[in-house]
Every structure is written in C-alpha cells, then in structure tokens.
Design goal:
By secondary structure, the protein is of the alpha+beta class. The protein folds into 2 domains: 29 residues; 95 residues, Beta-lactamase Inhibitory Protein, Chain:B, domain 1 (2-Layer Sandwich). 37% of the residues lie in helices and 26% in strands.
C-alpha cells in the first residue's frame, strides 16, 4: 500500500513538472515580427533569430530600415581593423545572456549605411 502511494506521488510529480515545462516553453516567442522583437525581454530574442533570418533579407537594408525593424541598437562600434574597407561600423542587438560568455549580440555590419553582413558575437569579443 505504501509503495503504491509513493509511485502515485512520483507519477503526479512528473506530470506536474512536464506541465510546467510545456507551459513555460509555450511562453517563448519564436515568431519574428518587429513588435515581438521590441516587446520581449532582450535576452529572449535568441529564439526569434531563425525566423528573422527566414523572413527578412537584412543584407542590403539601410540603417533606417534596420532601425524601423529592430529598434534602436544596444551597442555601436566602429569597424575592426580586420574589417577595414569591408564595413564602416556595427550595430549590436542583445539576443541573450550566457552566464559563461556574457551578452550575445546580433551584430549587423554597415558600409555606407547599408547592411553588408551580420553575425552573432559575444560582448567579450567586441
């Protein structure tokens, strides 16, 4: 009798854990839209990147178009020495925080105010 109660309690506990996990996962926004991007916590934007890449051709966009789409950048830095001639500056948008690496950014590269590239970079590498 006691053993059946323990097994039943364990089963109920596992079901509760699974329900909470599914509920929390359903709260994560994975569909990109300008509204979603600007409304979610910046550390949750990582989940939208795949959809952003599929829906939006960033290369060739003007800086004004990028700002209209993604809002104001969080980080701006001049081109790295290795980027000389390839781009003029980068805008960084926070996409998540990693406890080991720090903040991760969607880094968008501009040449003459037009997007020429983008990549994910950790703040420690900027």
């Amino acid at each position: 009798m006691k053993r059946k109660n323990i097994i039943a309690l364990l089963a109920i506990g596992i079901l509760i854990i699974l329900a909470v996990y599914r509920y929390e996962k359903s709260l994560i926004i994975t569909e990109f839209s300008a509204e979603n991007w600007m409304s979610v916590d910046s550390n949750q934007r990582y989940h939208m990147l795949e959809d952003l890449y599929a829906k939006v051709e960033l290369i060739g966009m003007s800086s004004n178009e990028v700002e209209d789409l993604l809002g104001m950048y969080g980080v701006r830095c001049e081109a790295y020495w290795s980027d000389e001639g390839k781009c003029d500056y980068h805008w960084g948008y926070t996409v998540r925080y990693d406890s080991w690496e720090g903040y991760e950014y969607l880094l968008i590269s501009f040449k003459d105010d037009i997007v020429v590239g983008y990549e994910l970079e950790y703040g420690s590498e900027l």
